[in-house]
Amino acid sequence: MPTGGGRRTSGLRREEVAVLAGVGVSWYTWLEQGREINVSADVLDAVASVLRLDAAEREHLYLLAGLNPPPLPPSNRQVPDGLQRVIDGWLPRPAYVIDRHWNLVAVNRAARVVFGYDHGDHNCLVSFFTNTHYRNALCRWEDAARAIVGQFRADAARYPDDPEFGRLAADMCLASPAFANIWAEHRVGSAAQGLKILHHPEAGELVFEYTTLPLSDLPGHRLLLYTPASGDDTGSRLAALLEMSEPLAG
Fold first, then answer.
1. Is 188 exposed, middle or buried (0-12, 13-18, 19+ CB in 10 A)?
2. Going residue by residue through the chain (250 aa), what tens digit of pLDDT does each one get?
3. DSSP characters for 172-184?
4. What angle is formed at CA 229 by the lines to CA 224 and CA 230, rounded to 5 degrees?
5. Is 137 helix (H, G, I), strand (E, B) or coil?
6. Do 145 and 214 share a domain, yes or no?
7. Is 6 left (phi over 0), alpha (psi -120 to 50) or beta?
8. Can you tell me the distance from the alpha carbon of 238 to that of 204, in angstroms, rounded to the nearest whole number?
9. Tell me, what DSSP letter sits at residue 93?
10. Crossing angle for the helix pair 14-21 and 41-50, to the nearest 10 degrees
11. How many domains, in total, are found in the chain?
12. CA-CA distance, 216 to 47, in Å (whole number)?
């Protein structure tokens, strides 16, 4: 845009935003004022591009307009260095990050040792139902399965225009009769924190309290942190387990 005289503040004027987005000035003014007007996703994308909104701001714009946010691009399975240091620094306690489709984006060594995640485990939901080590170790697996399917259905409902949830659910129904039976119950739930008990073949019973934290800089991603339950010797068992499984140098 050409530089105009008398500009008291930096940035675009309302008229300039309207021109760059390809909409009328009056219409854009009504949009800012929250009037009852028809708003399309294409127009919101144009406005978001002009204003250089990031993913979280773009999602917020859609929600303000009463539209479902567009699907985010596939995760590149990477997290910022600072977050990676948090995950690694949580040792000897398990920690990992999942994206909105429950893909495992970052996993620390304790989570791999305790839950049996190996390099073939790419999705938390898939591993829950197909990882034999995890299924055999987790206490009250049936109750936990119903809770996790309910959480996944609740997540899917937040993104009704994202076909990946339906594809993943369909694949799981074919791969796991247990998932298919629970999915047909149409349970919905949510759990930001709770208790998880496992019987590890080397460490014995491990009792964890877990907390799920949303990551504002990575929309749809969540950080899961596990802490040994108070009044239990899980902490010492866990430290011994990780020391025993320490990879050999060289």
1. middle
2. 455 555 455 677 888 888 888 888 888 888 888 777 787 888 888 888 888 887 767 777 887 777 766 665 544 557 888 999 999 999 999 999 999 999 999 999 999 999 888 777 889 999 999 888 888 889 999 999 999 999 999 999 988 888 899 999 999 998 899 999 999 999 898 878 889 999 988 889 999 999 999 998 888 899 999 999 988 899 998 999 888 877 644 4
3. HHHH-HHHHHHHT
4. 135
5. helix
6. yes
7. left
8. 10
9. S
10. 120
11. 2
12. 22
Do residue 116 and residue 214 come from a single domain? yes
User: In the numeric block, which tokens belong to residue 174?
Assistant: 């074919």
d(CA 168, CA 99): 14
Query: Using CA atoms, how far apart are residues 37 and 27, in angstroms rounded to an integer?
Result: 8
Q: CB–CB of 29/15 below 8 Å?
A: no
Strand order in the sheet with 222-228: 104-107, 95-98, 222-228, 204-214, 193-200
Written as six digits, the tokens of 138 are: 């987790």
Long-range Cβ contact pairs of 63-66 (< 8 A, separation 24 or more): 64/34, 65/31, 65/39, 66/39
200 secondary structure, DSSP code: E
Domain residue limits at 130: 81-244
Return phi, psi of residue 131, to 5°. Answer: -80, 110
Q: Three-state SS for 122?
A: coil
Which tokens sit at 52? 């250089």
Q: Are residue 116 and residue 33 in the same domain, yes or no?
A: no
